[in-house]
Every structure is written in C-alpha cells, then in structure tokens.
Write a structure and sequence with these properties.
Layout: E1 3-4, E2 16-17, H1 28-35, H2 38-42, E3 47-53, H3 59-72, E4 76-81, H4 92-101, H5 120-137, E5 140-145, H6 152-162, E6 170-177, H7 188-192, E7 197-201, H8 206-213, H9 219-228, H10 232-238, H11 254-264, H12 270-280, H13 286-293, H14 297-309, H15 324-332, H16 336-352, H17 357-366, H18 375-388, H19 392-402, H20 409-424, H21 428-440, H22 445-458, H23 462-479, H24 484-501, H25 513-516, H26 522-539, H27 543-556, H28 573-576, H29 578-588, H30 592-602, H31 617-629, H32 633-650, H33 657-673, H34 676-685, H35 696-710, H36 714-730, H37 741-751, H38 755-772, H39 775-788, H40 791-806, H41 811-827, H42 831-848, H43 851-868, H44 880-890, H45 895-902, H46 906-920, H47 928-938
Parallel strand pairs: 3-6, 3-7, 4-5, 5-6
Antiparallel strand pairs: 1-2
Length: about 950
C-alpha cells in the first residue's frame, strides 16, 4: 500500500497510509477533525469524539468514512449500530463490538457471557478484557453509530471501560441525533468523558449540494440547498424530483414523510403535532398547533419541545417545520381528503383568531373538496388585496375557489366581476369573457346595479376603470327594461367613472334631460341632483345653483326616514366616487353645515370599496379641506398628515386618486405654513406621469407651481400654474374655486416683469369669479386685480376684496387682501390707515399659522410705522417720505420723475407734496427750496 507522511497529522516515526479519495461531498472539515485525533491515539493515548446532527445529516456515512481512514492508518476497526428494534435486547451493541474484536485464532471467553450467567461485574470485566487485548495488538477504533438507540446494558459497558482505557490506543467515536431526549440510565458523558471532541454536522454548502444533486453550481442548486437545509439525505430524495421550471421549495417526497412519521412515533403526540405543523406552515403558532392537532396544551408543549430539540421544528415563537422539503413531504404522505379537511379546520381557526384574510384564504385554496359557505367573503377580500399589491394571478386563484361554493346569482355575478378585474391584469380577452358570463347571471335588478356600482367604486382609474365602465354599461343595458328608476343610478355612477378617467371633456350632463322626468325613486332623484350640481360646477355659472343641488343630494343620501333602502342608493356611495368627492368638497368647503352633513354621509361602518382608501379616510379628508378653506392651516395639516400615513401603509399615496389629492392638499397647506422642505420632499415622491387623472394631476401641478414660486423658482412655477389652467380648460372645467391658479400665476407674472400677462390673468379671474358668485373666489380675484391696477382703482379693488372675504370663512385669503391693501396704503402715504390694516393682517395670518404671510405683513407694518415717524433733520414734522419727495421736488424733478425714481404713483407723490406744503406753511413748489433750507438752518 502506498504511504506518505500526512503533514496535518504527523505520527512520530510512523508513516500514515495515503488516504483514499473522499466520498462525502462537504464533509472534509469533519473528517479532518476526526483524523486529527489519530496521531495521539497511535502514540498510546485514548481519545473520544461525538458526531451529532439532525436526521439524515450523514452521521453514519461520516463515521464509516473515518473508520476506513483509521483502518488504512493501522487501526483495528470495530463498529456497532444502535437500533430502535433492538434497544430492548440487553448487550446488543456490546455483542456487536465484541464479535468484531474476536480473534478466531486465539482462545477467548465466549461473548455470550457478556450478559449470561456470569455476574454483572464479571460481564463488565469480560468486555473490558476484550477491548484491552485488542488494543494491545493494534490501535483500536471503536465506533458506535446511533448511540442514542443503544440498549442500556451496552451503554453501561461503554461507560465501564471509559476510565480504564485512558492509557491505551483507543479512539471511541459515537454518533447521535442532536437533541435526542435522554431516556437511559447512562448519559453520553459517561461514555466519552467530559471533554470529548464534539463535531456537529450542519447542512452542506452550495457547492457540495450541487455535487450531490449532479448540478452545476448556481441559483437552482442554492434553492435546493435552501429547501432542504443542505441535509444530504433530503438532497438525495429531492434529486429525482427536479424538473425544469419547478420551484424546489414546492417539492417533497412521500417516502421522507413516512420515515419522519415513523421516527416520531416513539414521542407522545409528536405525529399529530407534526401533521398540524405541515398543514399550518407559516401560521404554526403554539395555540393553533395544539388546537388543530386536538392535543392538550401541556402535552402539545412537550411534543413541540422534543421536536425543536431534534431540529424538526424551528426554535422560535412560530414553531414551523425546519425545511420546506420536509413540510411538502409530510403533506404528500397525507391522504388528499385528510389534507383538505385539515386545511378547512386551519382556515376556521385562523379566521376565529383574527388572522389576515390572505392567510385564511391560503388554507381555503387547499380545501377544495370541502364546502365552506363563509369562505367566499374571505376569499374576495384577500383577492382584492392581492390585486392591488400586484399579485393578480393569486387573486384569480382565490376567486375561482370562491366560485366552487354554492352562490346566489347576485353573489356569483359579484365574484365573476371581481375575477374579471383580476384576470384583466394578465389576460384581457379572458376578462371580457368573464364580464359577459357575469352579465348572463343577472337576476335581481337592484342587486345587479349595486354590484356594478361597487365594481366602479373599487377601481381607481386607468385601464381598470375602463373595464369597470364596460361591465357597468353591459349590466345597465340588461337592466334597461326595468325602466329609468332601475338603471339611472348605475348610469350616473358609470358617467362619473368615465368623466374622471377621460382625457377630454365629458359629455354634457343635460344630455340626460329627457330621462329625468319619469324618475320617482329617491336614489334616482339623488343621482339627478348630484349630476345637476356637477353640471353647474363644470359650467362655472352659479355657485348658488351648485350648492343647492349638492344640498338636495345630501339631504336624500342615507336618509333613514326615506323609502325602503336600495342596495345602490342610500349609503352614500355616490359621494365616495373620487371625481364627485373632489368637486363636492371644493364647492362645499365654505358651507360648514353642508360639510358636516357630507362627513356624516361618508362616515359609514363598512370598509371603502377602494382597497387603497383607509376606513374613515373620506370624512377625514373632507374635514381637512374645510379646515384649510377656513384658514385653520395647523389643524388641516394634522388631518392630511395622519391620513397620508395611512395611505402610505396601503401603497395608495401615488396611485389612488384620493391619496394623490390628500398629498397635493398637504403640499399646498405646507406652502402656506412655510414648511417648504417638507413640501418638496413629499412632491419628490409623487409620480407626475402616472397621476394623469382629471383632478389629481391638475392639483399636483397647482401645488408644485405654488411651491416653486414660493421658493424662488418663479419661472418653473409659472409654467406649472399655466399648465394647470390649460388642463382645466381642456376638460371644460370653468369653476374658478377648484384651484385659484390664475391668482398665483398673475403674481408670478408680476415677479417676472410680465405685467400684461398678469393683467390678463386678473381680468379673466375676476370675470369667472363674478359669474360664479361665491365670496372666496371673488375676493381672491379682487385681491389679484388690486395688484395689477394702479392708484385708486387698486385701492378700491383691495377694499372690496376685504369686504367680500369678510362674509366668507376664508380667513387666509382675507389676511392676504389686508396685507396687500396695507402695503398699498403705506406706499400712498396713508400710514395711519396702513398701520391699522397691516396690524389686522399680522394678527389674522398668525392665527392661521401662515408664517410667510405673517412675516411679510409684519415687515410692511414696521416700514409703515417708520414712515409715520418725523424725520430728525427738520423742525416742521415732515415724515421721512415727505422729506425725501420734497427735497427731490426742490431739486427740480417733476412728479413723474419722482414717482419713477421711488416706485410710486404720481397720485402718491402729489399727496406727499401737499402734506409737505401744509407743514412748511407754503403755497406751492416755488417756495419749497427756501422753506427746506430755513428748516434745516433752524434745526
């Protein structure tokens, strides 16, 4: 035999046989640790080692590989194996070792005497003598495989020789399953001593796993190692089941399931807990495991503890099975009916425990042969969440499972429409077939209209909305034979959905005039009032008319004293539609009583149809919009911020129209509060490309334009505001109160030196606001007009703006008008008036929390007070402005030249000169030079 000196394990003066090629991929480190004990043993000192690991980790293979290396190194090898079937036979393992060490050529006591008639001490001494004699001839390698299954007498024999072979060349190597509960009279340390070499066999790495599987290293081999934990036995069981395109995490072996069940039989209740863990998967909490296994909690805890120690279950608060391959193997070993029943029981337990719908639905999917009537609602809710989180195919699977239940025609139509929505994400032609199938199931008119309306409300926009509109149109056509009352509310909801998703102007509301006359149903009447309100809003003709129609719609919505409830009519769904909600809140923000009524209508117990909209979001947003309109910026921002966090949790801030509206309103609010960095950060998150809805994108543009102007990016802000106006014009929206874009665009134009553009925008704004007739837009337009006009016209416009705004709750706009009037009065030399006006502006803007406006008003107030203070270098009490103008006039400058130099109007210059003449006691400009000189000499 070829030999070489092993540089890792040198034996003094001895040569070690050359090791054969290893046959255990990934176990080189463990074998090296074992062979590192050889030199000491060959030198005459005993050693011991323990190999521990989970079931299937290759303990036996590693032991036999080490034994082969030991034999090559000159050891006598004796290996015994513990067996569950022989663990009750005294001396079974000891006899195996004695037989292996028996020398046929030398006389020795029969091994049968180990547990024969001889006494206990004689038997133990006999076993020791066999070992000692063998060790006296050659170094001895004693291997005991599965020592945890050895009989008690054999364990006593091994414990007996432990201290007696210390100075003999004996290497004792044991293998044991990790965490195996001790149930013998001899502990492991009694056999190997207190300081054995302990070697834990963990799962092999990716490279070794690839070798076992016959694969090239890569993602597939890594996935297989993860599914099995790198357990060699599991990898070998997985190998023949690998197919192209199959996820290793979905594979299992019924044979492995059988083996594991068999091995757990010796532990009370472990098989039942094992099956429950396989069924529950990631839902495997302690209480659910015990209840599903129908095991007493204390007994369940003991079984779980045992399996955690054996590494069959994970050591965590969720004692799931260690590897997906093990779970799949147990499920494969379970009869299909048993699996279905257990999954249905698990679904019920999870539902009772308040688990998320998605987790309950995962078990309902597996309970295919079991009728579970309550499962339909859970499956639909889970499917809704799955669609909006981008998992449409999972949603479709849930809904197809729901269709297996016994459903009424109405519920079947609802599930089919929801399934069409899910399938539309990945199979549009199939979705169209589902819609036709749903239409064919229409039975009850009211139910059908309600379900179609719900579908429209559940779809945010874009292509999803087009599907909903198509489905609703087909159902409306089916219901048309029932008369206008039957179909009208659905037609209205369809119109609103279409109006909110169109890229161009919607059709005229009044095109439906002929169909209104025969309407008698309260729900249809409410829809009629709502559409009339929106028609008035879009035309921008009459605020009074629009508010009146909104009030009619609100008075009928959810009225408990009205006619019997219709599923589609009395719960306020119309006001939840985002197109309608956005315009209604914009109009009603100045009507506190109507805002309260609107919030009550929106405050329903059920969850909103749109999964992105949190419960209670619509009344919260409506209240925030009303607070912002009244100038209560701090409270409004609290409403918007708290609501935005909830939209963020649902992923709806940048996609749901209501979420986008909330974000845009918050940006506008922050601009007025002076929180520019926060507003910039929020706008950076928004998707201006995806948010192409009629009002959501428009309001985003408006908010960004305001922020840009406020932070010095005036040109970019001006373009945003003009783009906002073009979009509204393109959609035929002439209501000036939705976003006052012209007012801010005119200010930006003035800052850019484009006075003509500013004047044009102001004129357009005043005309539109006068036509509409509400105080806020009119007061805002008058304020803008005062900025672009001169002299008395400007002051009259600003004074009228203040008078108009005092009749509305628009305190921030009032403070703005007061600031502009006070500034103008100060420029005109009316310092006393300016001081009072600006003092009111400061107080009101501070009350609103509008810090930028308050700072500006305070600055103008200080300037007005300084202007009222007499100049120190004259004795006639000329103010600083009067003295400055008088000096310039005395130097020969005309009133026009003075006005140009000081950025004043000629009228203002004339007023200041008149005051100077009066104080100096002179009749006119000719005496001005002498009077000023005399005044200075006197001082």
């Amino acid at each position: 035999m070829d030999t070489e000196v092993n540089p890792e394990n040198p034996v003094s003066g001895a040569s070690v046989p050359k090791r054969p090629a290893l046959r255990l991929p990934g176990r080189e480190p463990e074998l090296n640790r074992l062979t590192s004990l050889f030199p000491a043993v060959l030198g005459g000192t005993a050693a011991s080692a323990v190999l521990v690991g989970e079931f299937g980790m290759g303990k036996s293979a590693t032991l036999h590989a080490a034994a082969a290396l030991a034999a090559d190194a000159g050891f006598t090898v004796a290996i015994a194996t513990g067996s569950r079937l022989e663990s009750h036979l005294p001396g079974g393992v000891a006899r195996q070792l004695a037989d292996a060490l028996d020398d046929p050529g030398a006389p020795s006591p029969p091994v049968t005497e180990l547990c024969g008639p001889a006494g206990e001490s004689e038997a133990l001494e006999l076993f020791f003598r066999i070992v000692r004699e063998a060790a006296g001839k050659r170094p001895l390698f004693l291997g005991i495989d599965n020592v945890h299954l050895a009989d008690a007498w054999s364990l006593r024999c091994l414990a007996y020789i432990r201290n007696r072979v210390v100075d003999l060349p004996v290497l004792i190597t044991l293998t044991s399953v990790v965490g195996y509960p001790p149930h013998r009279e001899v502990a492991l340390l009694d056999i190997v001593g207190s300081t054995p070499v302990r070697i834990t066999l963990n799962g092999v790495g990716d490279a070794a796993a690839a070798g076992i599987l016959g694969l090239a290293p890569g993602e597939l081999a890594s996935a297989c190692r993860e599914a099995t934990g790198g357990n060699p036995v599991l990898l070998q069981a997985l190998r023949p089941r690998l197919l192209p395109g199959v996820d290793p995490h979905e594979l299992g072996s019924s044979l492995i399931g059988q083996v594991l069940h068999t091995r757990m039989q010796e532990f009370p209740h472990a098989p039942a807990i094992l099956d429950a863990a396989a069924i529950l998967g990631e839902d495997a909490g302690f209480d659910l495991l015990a209840r599903l296994a129908d095991v007493d909690e204390l007994e369940a805890l003991q079984a779980i503890d045992t399996m955690v120690r054996l590494h069959v279950l994970n050591n965590s608060s969720q004692p799931t099975l260690t590897y997906s391959f093990v779970r799949n193997s147990l499920l494969k070993d379970m009869p299909q009916t048993t699996r279905a029943v257990n999954h249905s029981r698990a679904a019920k337990l999870l539902a009772e425990a308040g688990a998320p719908a998605e987790r309950v639905a995962a078990h309902l999917l597996e309970a295919t042969s079991i009728r579970i009537p309550w499962a339909v609602d859970v499956l639909r809710l889970s499917a809704r969440d799955a669609v909006f989180s981008g998992r449409a195919e999972l949603a479709a699977a849930h809904l197809r499972r729901a269709l297996e239940e016994r459903l009424t025609s109405g519920r079947r139509m609802a599930v089919l429409l929801q399934l069409a929505h899910a399938e539309f994400q990945f199979d549009p032609p199939g979705a169209a077939k589902r819609v036709r199938e749903a239409v064919d199931t229409v039975g009850n008119r009211d139910t059908a209209a309600h379900i179609a309306s719900a579908m429209l409300l559940s779809l945010c926009g874009g292509q999803d909305a087009r599907l909903g509109i198509s489905a609703a149109g087909q159902i409306a056509a089916r219901l048309d034979a029932g008369g206008p009352d039957a179909v009208w509310p659905l037609l209205c909801m369809t119109y609103l959905a279409e109006a909110g998703s169109r890229l161009g102007p919607p059709p005229e509301f009044r095109d439906f005039e002929e169909q209104w006359a025969p309407l008698t149903d309260p729900a249809a009447q409410r829809s009629r009032s709502a559409l009339l309100a929106l028609d008035a809003v879009r035309s921008g003709e009459s605020a009074q008319e629009a508010v009146g129609h909104f009030a009619d719609a609100l008075s009928q919505a959810g009225d408990p004293a009205g006619s019997p409830r219709r599923p589609s009519g009395d719960d306020g769904e119309l006001f939840e539609q985002h197109y309608f909600f956005t315009l209604a809140t914009a109009v009603l923000a100045e009507e506190p009583a109507h805002v309260d009524r609107l919030c009550r209508v929106l405050d329903v117990e059920r969850e909103p149809w749109d999964v992105h909209v949190p419960h209670g979001a619509l009344p919260t947003l409506a209240r925030g919009i009303a607070l912002q309109a009244s100038g209560d910026l701090q409270r409004a921002s609290v409403h918007f911020e708290s609501l935005l966090r909830r939209f963020d949790e649902r992923g709806g801030t940048t996609t749901c129209p209501i979420g986008v509206l909330c974000a845009a309103k918050l940006v506008e609010c922050w601009v007025d509060l002076g929180r520019f960095e926060a507003a910039t950060s929020l706008l950076d998150r928004m998707d201006f490309v995806a948010s192409q809805g009629l009002f959501t994108h428009t309001y985003l543009l408006y908010a960004r334009g305001r922020l840009r102007v406020a932070t010095g990016y005036t040109r970019f802000g001006f373009e945003d505001l003009l783009s906002c106006g073009r979009r509204l014009a393109h959609h035929g929206m002439r209501f000036p109160g939705f976003v006052p874009w012209r007012a801010h665009a005119a200010r930006a134009a003035l800052a850019l030196g484009q006075a003509d553009d500013a004047a044009r925008l102001a004129e357009e704004d005043i005309n539109a606001s006068a036509r509409w007739g509400a105080a806020r837009p009119l007061g805002t337009a008058l304020t803008t007009l005062g900025l672009v006009r001169e002299d008395d016209e400007a002051e009259r416009a600003l004074s009228k703006a203040i008078t108009t705004l005092r009749s509305s709750p628009a305190r921030l706009q009032l403070a703005t008008a007061q600031t502009e009037l006070g500034t103008l009065q100060a420029r005109h030399g009316q310092s006393e008036k300016a001081i009072e006006t600006l003092r009111q502006a400061v107080e009101l803007s501070e009350h609103c929390g509008a810090r930028p406006l308050a700072r500006r008003a305070a600055e103008e107030l200080r300037s007005a007070r300084r202007a009222l203070t007499p100049a120190k270098d004259n004795e006639h009490g000329l103010t600083r402005q009067e003295n400055r103008i008088a000096v310039m006039a005395a130097q020969g400058l005309t009133n026009r030249e003075i006005a140009t130099a000081l950025h004043l109007t000629r009228r203002t210059v004339e007023l200041h000169l008149s005051g100077a003449y009066r104080k100096l006691g002179i009749p006119g400009r000719a005496e001005l030079g002498g009077a000023l000189a005399k005044s200075q000499r006197g001082s």
